[in-house]
Amino acid sequence: MINNKMIEVKQDLDSLSYDTGIEIKIISENFDFPNKFTKLTASQFDVIMMADSSLNKENILMAFLYINSYIGCRNRNNDNQNTQDEYAKDNPEAFWRSIESMAKELSMSKDTINQCIDYLTTSSDNRPALLIKREVGSVQPDKTKPPKNVPNIYVLNKEGYKQEIEWALSKMKEIYEVDEFYPPKSGNYRFE
């Protein structure tokens, strides 16, 4: 970050001992616009670092950050409640991209992505699930071809997640131009 002029450190880092405090100045103008960042809370990070599985913690972290970056955060500074509600419906805080596109962008196998998502959507006695998963189903735009599964919906496990899922499901119906989704197809299928 020092080399990329994102932070400035006045001390000589090579001559510091382990108990020396370091003053770091953030050079904000050299960061991307804030909407290109995603927030990771300490508790979310702890859940990921506590992973007691064969999965690489870095893969789980990358998958979570990727999903969380698409979930985003709506602007809540609007005084007009009706306008704010409409904006929320049109911009649900949810993720619904395909595993295939996620695997390509993260350079991971689909199996690894699925394992990471399973970890992130499963609670245990020791930790809450970070994400809530809602299976959507399938569509059949061309009746001469078999149905295709659409991506599942993922939302952060926080208050209001049910409403976000409803808004995301409504948005997906609009995108796929359907009133309802068919049940998910199992076996050999492909995501749109």
Characterization of the model:
This protein has 192 residues and is of the alpha+beta class. Helix content is 35%, strand content 9%. The protein is built from 6 helices and 6 strands, in the order E-E-H-H-H-H-H-E-E-E-E-H. The chain has helices at 42-49, 57-71, 81-90, 99-106, 110-120, 161-176; strands at residues 7-9, 24-26, 131-134, 138-139, 148-149, 153-156. The protein has a two-stranded antiparallel sheet with strand order 1-2. A hairpin with an 8-residue loop joins strand 4 and strand 5 (148-149). The longest helix is centred in the C-terminal third of the chain and has 16 residues, at 161-176. The protein starts with 6 loop residues before the first strand and ends in a 16-residue tail after the last helix.
Defining traits:
single chain, 192 residues, alpha+beta, two-stranded antiparallel sheet, 9% strand, elongated, disordered C terminus
- First-to-last CA distance: 38 Å
Query: Looking at the structure, what is the overall shape?
Result: elongated
Q: Hey, roughly how much beta strand do the residues contain? A: 5-15%
Mean pLDDT comes to: 83
Q: Helix proportion of residues, in percent? A: 25-40%
Low-confidence regions: 188-192
Biggest sheet, in brief? 2 strands, antiparallel
From N to C, what is the helix and strand string? EEHHHHHEEEEH
Biggest sheet strand line-up: 1-2
From the helix content, strand content and strand pairing, which structural class follows? alpha+beta
Tally of strands: 6
